[in-house]
Amino acid sequence: MLRPMQDLFRPAEHPDLLVGLGAPDDAAVYRLDEARALIVTTDFFTPIVDDPYQYGAIAAANALSDVYAMGGRPLLALNIAALPPDLPPTMITQIMIGMAEKVREAGAVIAGGHTIQDKEPKVGLAVVGMASPDRLLTKGGARPGDRLILTKPLGTGCITTAAKSDQAKPDDLVEAAAWMMRLNRDAAEIAIEVGVRAATDITGFGLLGHATELAEASGVTLYLDAARIPLLPGAEQYAAAWIFPGGSAANRRAYEGGVRVAGDLPEHRLMLLFDAQTSGGLLIALPPDQREVFAAQMAARQAPWWEVGQIGAREDVPLVVHA
Amino acid sequence: MLRPMQDLFRPAEHPDLLVGLGAPDDAAVYRLDEARALIVTTDFFTPIVDDPYQYGAIAAANALSDVYAMGGRPLLALNIAALPPDLPPTMITQIMIGMAEKVREAGAVIAGGHTIQDKEPKVGLAVVGMASPDRLLTKGGARPGDRLILTKPLGTGCITTAAKSDQAKPDDLVEAAAWMMRLNRDAAEIAIEVGVRAATDITGFGLLGHATELAEASGVTLYLDAARIPLLPGAEQYAAAWIFPGGSAANRRAYEGGVRVAGDLPEHRLMLLFDAQTSGGLLIALPPDQREVFAAQMAARQAPWWEVGQIGAREDVPLVVHA
Q1: Which single residue of A24, A228, B132, B225 has CA 20 to 30 Å from B78?
Q2: Could you tell me the pTM of the whole model?
Q3: What is the distance between the alpha carbons of residues B115 and B137, in angstroms, rounded to a whole number?
Q4: Beta partners for B17?
Q5: Residue ranges of domains in chain A, CATH in brackets
């Protein structure tokens, strides 16, 4: 009765599933017709901040981000919630409104969901978006010569970990939460408009983990310039005190074999590049001839971005980090 | 900052969301164009049986059922899983294969998902399906004169509750599990083909809870004939011993005000009609002139069904149960 999973779903039997079998990307992509493809994704997690509204907003921004990272536009979302029966109703309302306001900001609509009772809260979304099948942002679309663009600073892992043991400055947590609540909408829409074909979003595997996946899928090597990688206020201080979530150490173990560090990079600065992020930015491979129009359109929307490196032909390792 | 939810999503701003705002139905429905509408739903729960393969298969059949209950055809699904880190890998594999085989049987494909660590396992699916916007099965489409069709026997709540305290006969649990693993595909496809417009699936609110929702949404009264309502082997015995899950008592409290019992129905038989079901059958409102072709097509596929009552004009209560 039990057959291996790869026997159950053969790509040839699902020709319209453009992304979803084989190498994982940020979300599944299903072709509806010549002009339209569905983007489908789900994400949910335990509280990352104490404030219930912010928790909901971050969970929603994080789930919506997978649609943006594929070049899609969110259409509708379903709430996914596991909540303790003794959680005050006002708190549940604030979580749900945090999620709903982000979905609305994304131009989508919450159309239902499923809630169960659970000891520890978990919330998130299942999201359905729409994209053009010939204008997707995939991990495999990066080419030598492309510039590497990052749209949010790093450090949400070490800052929220510091906050859990009351070691974070309140202002640092406020700033980190604001970035986590921020949608990746502007960069995704502009990237699609200018003709970008490769991107991913930075979440649990950290910058170097997700960068590795992009490099491997595209068959290229990414050259990152550590000095140009933006960090959240306070991140370097907590990193120097070696306050990291467990996931950051796991990321380093999983990915450091494919990373060559050129020059003298302090240990805690390297570790920050592995820091597990929540609702991080997009990492975009921007062809150089599109750089000017990308910059102009991002500036017109006052959308933040940093050029953090570039892409070359595949070397012995997928990632090279210059100190 | 906090606005009430109904201010965030106004139906007029989402004209293509045919079902999802306002009165809840089995799944959200989003119109893509004249001929096609997306059906989107999510469901997940803690183990209902000990066998990991069966648990996965039941969770998947249950989640897929919401697509069938709206008249849709499942296209793709995402796994949703919260699993204890110490669960043996073979068990996780069996749960996942149980889910995958059901998705495959439904003609759909698993295209990704999200897994987190959790103390108590929860698994299920987010499912995207496709339907014709003018051939949906909604709760609001039932009309006086329609016959009431049920496609699975009742009693999964009391049988699985009996099994948890080792009071269930093994054969009874095997039979209940087989029904819970069964897809609602045949009845849904045939209902759509013959022109049915109203259905719902029987899950946590029990037969009378879901029947009430259908009656209220359609503005009709449902007349159920208790003697014709199918019961799983053993269900009546456990019911007579008053072995019910907490949800069944909650259903009775919530819905009994709208139920008039005509004749002499034993308490435990009435309670079985409120029994919280997992992956239950479809409750279909079948126009009488379609009864013959529906019966012939169901017979051709050897698909089980029972005629359990009929629909009349709205009376003082939504439900009348004849003993």
Answers
A1: B132
A2: 0.94
A3: 32
A4: B30
A5: 3-134 (3.30.1330.10), 137-322 (3.90.650.10)
State which amino acid sits at residue B130: M
CA–CA separation, B100 and A5 (whole Å): 7
Taking only the tens place, the pLDDT of each residue in A73-119 is 999 999 999 999 999 999 999 999 999 999 999 999 999 999 999 99
Which of B5, B14, B41 has its CB closest to that of A100?
A: B5
Task: Let me know: does B84 contact B94? Beta carbons within 8 Å.
Answer: no
* SS3 of A225-274: EHHHCCECCCHHHHHHCCCCCHHHHHHHHHHHHHEEEECCCCHHHHHHHH
Give me the half-sphere count of Cα atoms (radius 13 Å) on the Cβ side of residue A55.
20
Q: Is the ipTM of this complex over 0.90?
A: yes
What are the tens digits of pLDDT across the range B228-283?
999 999 999 999 999 999 999 999 999 999 999 999 999 999 999 999 999 999 99
Q: Which of B16, B31, B34, B40 to mutate to test binding with chain A, by most A CBs within 10 Å of its CB?
A: B40
Distance of alpha carbon B270 from alpha carbon A118, whole angstroms: 30
Contact yes or no for A116 and B24 at CB 8 A = no
Beta strands in chain B, from DSSP E residues, in sequence order: 17-19, 28-31, 37-45, 73-83, 109-117, 122-131, 147-150, 198-201, 220-225, 259-262, 282-286, 306-313, 319-322
Token digits of residue B183: 């897809």
Q: What count of residues does chain B have?
A: 323
